[in-house]
Amino acid sequence: MVGDFVIINGEYRGTVEEVRARFIMIREWSRRLLMLSYSQIHEI
């Protein structure tokens, strides 16, 4: 859900900024924006 803090695959940590049909966007604490496709996500 947008605004939630998540850890994905034990590697990516941040706040969910956007959820789309094919990917999720996460903002890390360093302010870097990550775009991960659902096929890259194995563990939340």
Task: Give descriptors for this structure.
globular, four-stranded antiparallel sheet, 0% helix, 44 residues
Task: Explain this structure.
This protein is mostly beta strands. It has one domain (5-40). It has no helices and four strands. Strands 1-2-3-4 form a four-stranded antiparallel sheet, with no helix packed on it. A hairpin with a 3-residue loop joins strand 1 and strand 2 (12-19).
N-to-C SSE series? EEEE
In the predicted model, the low-confidence regions spanning at least 5 consecutive residues are none
Counting DSSP H or I runs of 4 or more residues, the number of helices is: 0
Q: What is the straight-line distance between the termini?
A: 12 Å
- Principal-axes geometry comes out as globular
Structural class: mainly beta
The whole-number mean of residue pLDDT values reads: 95
Question: Helix proportion of residues, in percent?
Answer: under 10%
Q: Outline the biggest β-sheet.
A: 4 strands, antiparallel
In short:
The protein is mostly beta strands and 44 residues long. 0% of the residues lie in helices and 50% in strands.
